[in-house]
Amino acid sequence: MSGASGMQMGTDARPNVLPVKKASGPGFLGPQYNPADEMLPPASIGVKRGGDLNDVLGAVKGVIYYGDMMGFGEASSGFTRGMPGLRPLGVNYFVNSGLTCSNGATMWEYVQTIPTGSALGEKVKQAIRGVGLPQLRGMAPGILEDAESALNPFPVINAVVGSGYPQCRLVKKKVGDFDGKIYNVDGVMLVDPEGLIGSGDGPYYQERWIQDREVTGSNRPGEEDDEHYARSDPIQLAYDEWDKAPKTHGENGCILDIKATPPSAKLVEPSFCPAARATGAATSATTGAAAKGPVKKQGFEDYRHPMQKMLSLSVAAISVIALIAFWATKPRK
Predict the structure, then answer these.
(1) Which region among 2-11, 94-103, 196-205, 229-238 has the lowest average model confidence (pLDDT)?
(2) CB 258 within 8 A of CB 270
(3) Which residues cross the membrane (predicted)?
(4) Burial status of residue 273 (CB atoms within 10 A of its CB: 0-12, 13-18, 19 or more)
(5) Angle at which helices 139-151 and 53-71 pack, to 10 degrees?
(6) In degrees, to the nearest 5, what angle opens at C-alpha 273 toward C-alphas 267 and 278?
(7) Residue 134 burial (CB count, 10 A)
(8) 168-175 and 204-211: which strand pairing?
(9) What is the number of alpha carbons within 13 Å of residue 215 lying toward its C-beta?
(10) CA 64, CA 75: separation in Å to the nearest integer?
């Protein structure tokens, strides 16, 4: 062998050791979503300079409003109930993993950055619900959830000890922000444009092939089926088993030869596939006023402003510290 590019193991002459392809979609750095841009400024929620009772009340409501945004992501009392823009921040989306499923389809990862309220564990979640408070779905708990997900060693361990040859299943998931919007405040699309299901202002959904998992046992108290599935062990195949599996689907997840596939095969595919076969490419299944056209510059090349993102993260961190300091120094009766 003349070099590393010609290396092989025994008689295995595969060009690639793993079934990988170029990743697409929002990319591993995530979509162009800035939580600071999504929060309303003080003037938009009735906070203004002045000394009369209404001005003071507006300022108090403003403090509680931003406290709810940081802690709960919804109104925690009558002061902020009905105020605009009070919602959990974040985006749920699919990202192309670059791996190929055993059936030939591209495997995607479903990324959830909208807080679920599980930052402090299931017991605390149930305790908060028991006293009538909303779930912890604000920015601060969301940061904890993201940190917990990033520090979880099991995905890395599975990647190291796993075979890299996944078995997949087809799922339908909601994409976009909490309100179902798929564009940020600047009009840039937040999700992969192909195969969108929805119309107008949303909500929008997408169907993708993701890593199949072996679900065992029953749900924990208060646990949803999706949460149980996410913590289950991924199904990895040996290369020979993966290679021998019928490659019935194309990279876009659609059945390759629908006419030759008998109904008894019980093969499934995303709902955009009939239109994709008719046009020769994956299409959006949107109906009605489907906002602006697909934005193709939604890959890795879109993320050109790391300093702006660091500044926004710093502002968010300072806001959290200021809020904690405010409540810590508040006089107690």
Answers:
(1) 2-11
(2) no
(3) 310-329
(4) buried
(5) 10
(6) 130
(7) 18
(8) antiparallel
(9) 13
(10) 9
Kindly report whether the global pTM for this prediction surpasses the value 0.85: no
Cβ count within 10 A of residue 208: 26
Tell me the C-alpha distance between 130 and 304, whole Å: 45
N residues, the chain = 333
Locus of tokens 């510290």: 321
Residue 26 in tokens: 């929002």
Residue 203 preceded by cis peptide, ω within 30: yes
Alpha-carbon distances, residue 128 vs 131, 132, 137, 163, 213 (angstroms): 6, 7, 12, 41, 31
What is the sign, positive or negative, of the torsion defined by CA atoms of 8, 12, 15, 16? negative
With 0-12 / 13-18 / 19 or more C-beta atoms within 10 angstroms meaning exposed / middle / buried, residue 102 is buried
CA distance 205 to 198: 6
CA distances 59 to 51, 56, 168, 292, Å, are 10, 5, 52, 38
Question: Can you tell me the distance from the alpha carbon of 81 to that of 68, in angstroms, rounded to the nearest whole number?
Answer: 10
* Integer Cα distance of 68 and 217 in angstroms: 36
Q: Return the H-helix or E-strand segment holding 151.
A: helix 139-151
Other Cβ atoms within 10 Å of 152 Cβ, number: 11
DSSP code string of 35-85: HHHHSPPGGGGT--S--SHHHHHHHHHHHHHHHHHHHTSS--STTTTT-TT
Tens-place pLDDT, residues 188-231:
999 998 899 987 777 999 999 999 999 999 998 778 888 889 88
CA dihedral 20→22→28→29, nearest 10 degrees, is 160
Strands 92-100 and 106-112 come out as antiparallel
Strands 106-112 and 213-214: unpaired
Residue type, 313: L
Structural element, H or E, at residue 95: strand 92-100
Tens of pLDDT along 12-38? 555 555 555 555 567 667 788 999 899
